[in-house]
Amino acid sequence: MKPMRTERLILRNWEDRDRELFHRINSDELVMEFFPFRRTRAEADAKMDEVRAWVDEDGYGFAAAEIAATGECIGFVGITGTEDIDVLPAGTIEIGWRLAPEFWGKGYVTEAAEAWLAYGFETLDLDEIVSFAVYENHRSTAVMKRLGMRVDPAGDFDHPDVPDSHPALKRHVLYRLSREDWQARKKAAQ
Asked: Nearest to residue 144, comparing CAs of 172, 102, 177, 118?
């Protein structure tokens, strides 16, 4: 992928220097509060390699977010397909994020997500981008609302990858943003 620049961030593919941070955001109890798993270092390294290959192949994905002024990787923000979630229609593209806790509350996710929405709607010519989270994940749903996404209660679903051993994490709330709504919000902000 060609790196994207926002006011404070560089959105780019993963590099070997990011491995420690990638493991951390996939194993930290606070970051992974709404996920039924924690990755070991070996599992995180393998997943990072997989994500990096997808980003290389597709030109987008859950890409690394780096603070431009310091070069420090803080987590990921990006868009990706949802082929592995069979309860969503084929071709659905989601926007998602995961940051180390010390970078929460600084507007980084919203800033990076705005760039990814522009990429999705302008470059990829998508009609819609969705996002979803465990119902109780209010930090993530607050970002979805800031991005202008609308909750779709009829689209809420039990995530098929969440085992029955974690019933509180199964139900996911679905948010949607159409290209038309994104364009209208963008135009109103000018």
From this structure: 177
